[in-house]
Predict the structure.
Amino acid sequence: MTRFNTQLVHGLPVNDNNTGAVNPPIYNSSTYAFESVEAMPRWDYARSGNPTREFLEKQIAQLEHGTRGFAFGSGLAAIHAVLSIFQPGDRIVVGKNIYGGTYSLFHEYFERWGVIIEEVDTTDYEALDAAVSGESVKGGAHGCPAKAVYFEVLTNPLLQVNNVTAIAGIAHRHGAIAIVDNTFVTPYLQQPLDQGADIVIHSATKYLAGHSEVNAGLVVVKDDELGKRVYFAQNRLGGVLAPNECDSVRRGIQTLALRMDRQQENARAISSYLLLHPLVKSVHYPGLPGHEYELASNGLKGGGAVLSFEVVPGVDPADVLDNLHIFRLAVSLGAVESLAELPCRMTHFELPREERLKVGITDELVRLAVGVEDKQDLIEDLGQAFDIAYEHYLNRHAGESLFTFAQHVYA
């Protein structure tokens, strides 16, 4: 019985060759020969199965304590495959604050095919219970119990913590399954299946691969019946992850714990710095010092390495973002380099402005995905960008002093 860090490095053998190779081979073959017409080979066609992909799928299932794993060409391809197990007329309760691409997939694709989407604050258990039971929806099929609850462990980009145990318990009480996006957390910080979830999804593009070089999605299921349904979607829709990309994710997983430890250390230092900066109105990060009990009570071993903050009124967030040098202005997260972005214009542009504002995604909100660089360099990079943003503010406000500025902001 190996422990988590050892599982990251070694995974589970596929027993596909006897060469003694330390690393599993990359099989760039689209088809496999049958020994005879009557034979039932383990692999026959790469869409249905591939030894390199199988290694990765078995490894993520091991890390998430699931029965079966699946690898897809992107995080959204993984979400699409999972949602395709539902039928027209099925109702899915969705957390109000989710990634913009997921929001679009729900509302611009699956609603077209008759899947009913109901959004709810998943931290409001009374409202969630009413939504899952169907009590909050009037008339017809809308009033029937939901088939699933879909949510993110840490919401994007406000980093609100969802309690998997509580949400899964409500879902199961009404016969629904719990589907969890664990991208921001990874199995290093939480294993949702152990807390009652039924399906776990990862955009493996992020922390698992960790180097901004591959798009990938992973799914892990709790039981064999769900596994059959997800495999059918994977095999028939065909959005599988190619062998070379599977190997890139496998190599990234080997250093997950090392990277995540450094990234969280950096994120804690940056969030503490931002809390004291006069141009920052608020900081959103569950790993702030003193929040350890809150994390533990929600089943988390850490706060991850994504944080967001709002600049004070009158300061243009673009003046901060456009003047960063070490942070790169880019979407995505979880890689070794630090990234910064403006959610209202970048990751969450699919949400109508009124919908964004309802869930707290303001035009002043900046999201940071913290990498493994020296934390002091990152803090100094933010500091010089804030200085430029303040100079631009002064130019727009005819020489107002920092003291007067602070009085105006915090009045």
